[in-house]
Amino acid sequence: MIQARASGDPFEALGDPNRRDILRLLSDGDKPVAEIAAALPISRPAVSRHLRLLKEAGLVAEQAQGTRRIYHLQEQGMHAVQAYLERVWGDAARRFRLLAENTGNAGNAGNAGNREHREQAAE
């Protein structure tokens, strides 16, 4: 198996919709360049360039099978991106949940009071 050391920025690589489409295709399993190119509205050389950037970012790897190159997701690179996002958004989500839990009860109590007031006014 041929693997390159990740030298590119995975978030820069993820910034292009065609590269995200390639990752989605590879999430279904290993694929040769020709199959990836057939599924996308871009040329085969463009697919090859996108694959090179994804490989440099550590998100995909290739394996030689005869004259073909079979690409697959690079688990280590994908886990690194996931861990980063969970760390950043996990902290934000915890803070938001804490805020929502602490203000949600006061908001619900206020809504109950407003409902009682509306019911009395309707009588």
Plain-language structure description:
The protein has 123 residues and is mainly alpha-helical. The protein folds into 2 domains: 64 residues, Winged helix-like DNA-binding domain superfamily/Winged helix DNA-binding domain (Arc Repressor Mutant, subunit A), CATH 1.10.10; 49 residues, no CATH class. The chain has 5 helices and 3 strands. Strands 1-3-2 form a 3-stranded antiparallel β-sheet. The longest helix is centred in the C-terminal third of the chain and has 48 residues. It is elongated. The protein starts with 9 loop residues before the first helix and ends with a helix.
Write down the overall mean pLDDT: 83
Low-confidence stretches: 1-5
Largest sheet: 3 strands, antiparallel
Order of helices and strands, N to C?
Answer: HHEHHEEH
Global outline: elongated
Short description:
With 123 residues, the protein is mainly α. 67% of the residues lie in helices and 11% in strands.
